[in-house]
Specification:
The complex is a heterodimer of chains A (306) and B (317). By secondary structure, chain A is an alpha/beta fold. Chain A has two domains: 220 residues, Rossmann fold, CATH 3.40.50.300; 63 residues, Alpha-Beta Plaits. In chain A, the strands form three sheets. Chain A has a six-stranded mixed β-sheet with strand order 6-7-8-3-9-10, sandwiched between helices. In chain A, strands 2-1-4-5 form a four-stranded antiparallel β-sheet, covered by helices on one side. In chain A, strand 7, helix 6 and strand 8 form a beta-alpha-beta unit. In chain A, helix 3 runs parallel beside helix 5 and helix 9 packs across helix 10. The radius of gyration of chain A is 24 Å and the shape is elongated. Chain B is built from 13 helices and no strands. In chain B, helix 3 packs parallel to helix 7, helix 5 packs parallel to helix 8 and helix 8 runs parallel beside helix 13. The chains are: A alpha/beta (306), B mainly alpha (317). At the A-B interface, helix 2, strand 6, helix 3, helix 4 and helix 5 of A face helix 1, helix 5 and helix 6 of B.
Chain lengths: 306, 317
């Protein structure tokens, strides 16, 4: 079931069209919204929340209509904005409890929940400090906590690892993974950092130039289920490629002594054919693995090809 | 994820069944603003100082009431209290403390929206089920109530003091509607000034800039109005006296004063009613239509500005 469905959505800022006839169905789980800077990712999130009125098309979030049910959508959704945001003069507990109250929670519930969420987000005793004194990593965590405080069914995270050092990034991605895998919250992670998406998300939507370019599970996009094998030889060998062609292989790409070959058949069958071809060509195999693209390759391909 | 904290929640789970609070978000926002202000010592100091007129008046009346027999005979106190127009003292109290009230207003309201703009707090507000109207009404109510508290504390003190001590001198009987009128006047002035500063604050990204702009408008429009009065007092301008009187009210201070005069039903007086020399300097209360234009138009304009400027995202068109 799709948690977000957008159909032919068009969003304009004056004459500039940020999203053009954009259609997507975001499945449950942790989904990455991937795209270069200025692709329209944040615009999509803000349109879903009702901050921006679309010029055309329609959409729904958790079964609620975008534009018409803005308040109900924001009740059911948590949003972690890309930029720093806090309310001046508050400490973390006050801020997150206030966010909970704004989401409709009674005060005592909101305060209790603020402590729980801040502890979960790893702020510990720092939650009693004024937010203005926080480091970038702590500010990211508090944004995460305020988005989570009211128990949303869908969490929208806009560049959650922005400005974080490697350790902070690692911890934030763990949090994202945990909330989606173990706590039953659907998460839409918006990022231009492919490793972040690859690490946390089950599926990916690639967006560029205000249009949807590609959508699928991470494994599909990386081609893990395709009939390709990556072969590393001791040294380059034209004879090996000729032998492989005789066994039905097609050369997909070659990089140094690495060859990606594709053919019809299961992985075991393909492996046997590779060994046969190497024996015929007298080439020594140093490595053999199922052919998989990196997400970056899939992403670049999506952007270029389309 | 942290498990080292004293109340580490190892069994953290997402909560989707939290009970919903009764009442609107506007009150949550107003309460937050007020909680911040009541902790400021300067707010309370300014509140007491702005009530200086009432404190002085209470001291003078107490002194005369207690020691009249030693000063000018038994009838002196009676004659003195006969001269005082009690309801005008609420107007005089405002005139005495208006600069301090402006300082309170700047402290409470200048950064109310501007500081939220600076820290991107609007993204937090509007990503929750909180409407623009909730936000603005909440900010308005917070500013309004804090300003009302600052004006009411000295005024209510004087009301109690007068009602307890000067009933026989006409405190409650000269104008039986005086207390409701004074309260209504204070609330109207607070609502007017809170609306204006809300609009000004929404235009800026820094509370200080918003405060400086409001103070500039307040002071400069006041200076302009005073200059017009000086011209009226020093020259033979019988033909344009009405125009000059109108100009007096074309300022934030003047509009507030006009509002208070109209609601109290007085033109004002200087402490005692037979001060002929000073009476010429008194500007008669404004025409009701003029007052409506000078108060209602800025209020509508400021609310319109705030509604237009307050948004979760910067939309370039």
């Amino acid at each position: 079931m799709a948690v977000v469905t957008l159909e032919n959505l068009t969003v304009q800022y004056g004459r500039f069209t940020a999203l053009r006839d954009f259609s997507v169905a975001v499945p449950e789980g942790c989904v990455g919204l991937l795209g270069p800077n200025g692709a329209g990712k944040t615009t999509m999130l803000k349109t879903m929340l009702g901050f921006i009125k679309p010029a055309g098309g329609r959409g729904d979030v958790l079964g609620l209509e975008v534009g018409r049910d803005g308040m109900a959508i924001r009740q059911a959704v948590g949003y972690m904005p890309e930029q720093d945001c806090h309310i001046p003069g508050m400490n973390a507990v006050q801020f997150v409890a206030y966010a909970g109250e704004l989401a409709g929670m009674p005060r005592n519930h909101a305060v209790r929940r603020a402590h729980e969420v801040l502890e979960y987000a790893g702020l510990g005793e720092a939650r009693y400090r004024a937010i203005e004194s926080y480091s970038t990593g702590m500010k990211q965590r508090i944004k995460f906590a305020q988005a989570l405080v009211h128990g949303p069914k869908l969490l929208l995270l806009d560049e959650p690892t922005n400005g974080l050092d490697p350790k902070g990034r690692h911890e934030m991605l763990d949090l994202v993974r945990d909330i989606s895998q173990n706590k039953g919250v659907n998460v839409l992670v918006c990022s231009h950092l492919l490793p972040d998406i690859e690490r946390t998300c089950d599926s990916v939507v690639v967006i560029a130039g205000g249009q949807m370019k590609l959508q699928g599970s991470v494994s599909d996009l990386r081609g893990l289920n395709s009939n390709a094998v990556d072969v590393e030889l001791r040294e380059k060998s034209g004879e090996f490629l000729q032998a492989a062609a005789r066994h039905g292989f097609e050369l997909v790409s070659a990089k140094g002594t690495w060859y990606r070959l594709a053919a019809v058949g299961g992985h075991e069958e393909l492996s046997k054919k590779v060994f046969l071809a190497s024996r015929e060509a007298g080439a020594q195999i140093r490595g053999l693995k199922p052919g998989a693209r990196s997400l970056e390759e899939a992403f670049m391909e999506a952007i270029d090809v389309n | 994820m942290s498990t080292s904290g004293p109340i580490a929640d190892l069994s953290y789970r997402n909560v989707t069944d939290s009970p919903l609070r009764k009442g609107g978000n506007w009150w949550v926002i107003a309460r937050q603003l007020m909680q911040r202000v009541v902790k400021l010592r300067s707010f309370w100091v300014l509140t007491v100082l702005s009530g200086g007129h009432f404190l002085i008046l209470a001291a003078v009346t107490y002194f005369i009431d207690s020691f009249a027999a030693n000063m000018g005979g038994a009838d002196f106190a009676g004659q003195f209290f006969e001269q005082i127009v009690w309801k005008d003292q609420f107007l005089n109290g405002f005139q005495f403390g208006h600069f301090l009230l402006m300082a309170i207003l700047l402290m409470v309201g200048a950064g109310s929206i501007a500081n939220d703009n600076r820290s991107n707090a609007l993204l937090v507000y509007f990503s929750k089920p909180c409407s623009k109207l909730d936000y603005l009404v909440g900010k308005f109510v917070g500013i309004f109530l804090m300003l009302a508290i600052a004006m009411l504390i000295p005024a209510v003190f004087f009301m109690f003091y007068g009602a307890m001590n000067f009933r026989e001198h006409g405190f409650l009987t000269d104008d039986p509607m005086m207390i409701p009128r004074a309260l209504a006047g204070i609330f109207a002035v607070c609502a007017f000034q809170a609306s204006v500063i809300l609009g000004v604050s929404s235009l800026f990204n820094q509370g200080r800039l918003a405060g400086a702009t409001y103070a500039g408008i307040y002071v400069l429009s006041g200076v302009f109005a005073q200059l017009a009065r000086l011209v009226a007092e020093t020259r033979d301008v019988a033909g344009i006296q009405g125009v000059l009187d109108t100009i007096h009210y074309l300022s934030l201070y003047g509009a507030s004063e006009g509002l208070l005069k109209t609601i109290l039903g007085t033109d004002g007086s200087f402490f005692v009613r037979d001060n002929q020399g000073a009476a010429e300097a008194i500007v008669p209360r404004p025409d009701l239509w003029l007052l409506l234009v000078m108060v209602v138009l800025p209020v509508i304009a400021c609310w319109g500005l705030a509604l237009r400027k307050v948004r979760a995202v910067e939309v370039v068109s």
